[in-house]
Amino acid sequence: QLQVVESGGGLVQPGGSLRLSCAVSGLTLDYYVIGWFRQAPGKEREGVSCVSSVEGSTYYADSVKGRFTISRDNAKSTVYLQMSSLEPEDTAVYYCAAAGGVPYIPVQDMCVMYELYFASWGQGTQVTVSS
Question: Quick check: 121 and 3 in contact, CB under 8 A?
């Protein structure tokens, strides 16, 4: 069974950096997507960044492009989200999620339109950017 466990997050000043980790277990499929989503108070959950098993294809939301980097450590079965140049607008609860055993869909579409395919979700970790 596909499971994810998040770690990281916390309070950081504007311009600072944080790294979120997502430990994934139960991945035995050829095609899967691991994604980071976030939800700020009063806003809908949005896809921040996703990585696909297909050549490690990645997607970034425009709001984080150039500041966030998603990466995989296959040996550790862990996906990271390195967040730099953080802004107060990045304040949210961040969730890691995994989608496996689904039809092939480009990683951008998975992250933006097919959230329903992400069957396994972490508990969420709070990221607060404030001075």
Answer: no
Instruction: Enter the tokens of residue 94.
Output: 């961040």
Q: Tens-digit pLDDT profile for the chain (131 aa)? A: 788 999 999 999 999 999 999 999 887 667 889 999 999 999 999 999 999 988 889 999 999 999 999 999 888 889 999 999 999 999 999 999 999 878 889 999 999 988 899 999 999 999 999 99
State how far the alpha carbon of 70 is from the alpha carbons of 51, 65, 113, in Å: 7, 11, 19
**One-character DSSP codes across 53-119:** SSTT-EEE-TTTTTTEEEEEEGGGTEEEEEE-S--GGG-EEEEEEEEES-----HHHHHHT-GGG--
Sort strands 18-25 and 3-7 into parallel, antiparallel or unpaired: antiparallel
Distance, in Å, from the CA atom of 55 to the CA atom of 9, rounded to the nearest integer, reads: 28
